[in-house]
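Please complete every field before forwarding. Incomplete forms are returned to the sender.

SECTION A: IDENTIFIERS
Entry label: holo-372
Bound molecule: pyridoxal-5'-phosphate
Molecule representation: SMILES string

SECTION B: INPUTS
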Amino acid sequence: MPISKSFSRIPFVDLSAQYKTIASEVNPAIQSVIDSCAFILGPEVKKFEEEFTRFCDVGFAVSVDSGTSAIELALRAFDVGPGDEVIAPANTFIATVLPITQLGAQPVLVDQHPDTYTIDVDQIEAAITERTKVIMPVHLYGQPADMDPILEIAKRHDLIVIEDAAQAHGARYKGKRVGGFGHAAAFSFYPGKNLGAYGDGGIVVTNDAQIDDKLRLLRNYGQRKKYHHEEIGFNHRLDSIQAAILRVKLQHLDAWNAARREHAADYTRLLEGFGVHPPMVPTYSEPIWHLYVIRVQNRDGFQAFLKERNIDSGIHYPIPIHLQPAYQYLGYKKGDFPVTDGFADNIVSLPMYAELTDEMVAYVVEAIKDFL
Ligand SMILES: *Cc1c(COP(=O)(O)O)cnc(C)c1O
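SECTION C: PREDICTED COMPLEX
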């Protein structure tokens, strides 16, 4: 146990620690948008989209007002609606599935792989019917789903692939950043994500010029020219102030992700042999560690023990999609996805953010060892 600690508490994430490191860049960026009064779809939005396009090595990027909107507009751009089925993992955040059902389509869930926590690719084909239109893998916890077999299945069955990359800005699959593998990909800039705005935000990326065009119409009242409405569109635009903040933060993202990678490597090394199942990283994967998830018995006791030592933790997610009250009508029951169901009571997420220090990581690990 460290004797002279330079901290009094280890939060789960620490947005203010990050802000302190970039305040001198972010504050003038915000002020310059205010000075320009270009609040909606101004130059900052355009520049951010160009920069994020390059970051993901894709053709196009259309910014929107949240990650949920990004998924919804991506589905709409491919005309997903009533009668269509969308395959998605059972273990994910609810926002993967909400847009599917809001469009009147049917989510068809698939269990997670026990080692990677991402969709079990060997179970996808059994979920395909003649109504299946989209496969939506989630790069959960910042770990890329196994894209090659997914793309191969999609090709064989003539399906669209939309990546839910909300937790995976900059993660690499076989050396290439996620976002460009499917027909489109959705990212979230919720403040706690690896690339987070100071409010809500999201973006859709694609290599398809027609989809890019459709997304731009959909997010902005269905208009190309002011007051000329070609489609029944929406107001789902990213604010210019958020774009300006995200432009600053994008410059730091690789370094922040690298710092998370070091903390994850330390957790994994120091927890080896303690039976907490540190996350497995397949050779194809370079995760960005949005979350660092282990499994423990007596999770309530574990979290309370950490709390006593001023360490916050989280659960992602305590209730899988198919057991959420809102989705009882889908007709699933506990046990339908044995891996997801089996892990749901044991998973726990440790503090993870770039500004953690080695001392803090060691302190968390000591507490875990003491509990065990
Ligand atoms: C955060 C998140 C979303 C939704 O993003 P919001 O910006 O919060 O709307 C979607 N899918 C996953 C997996 C997420 O983690």
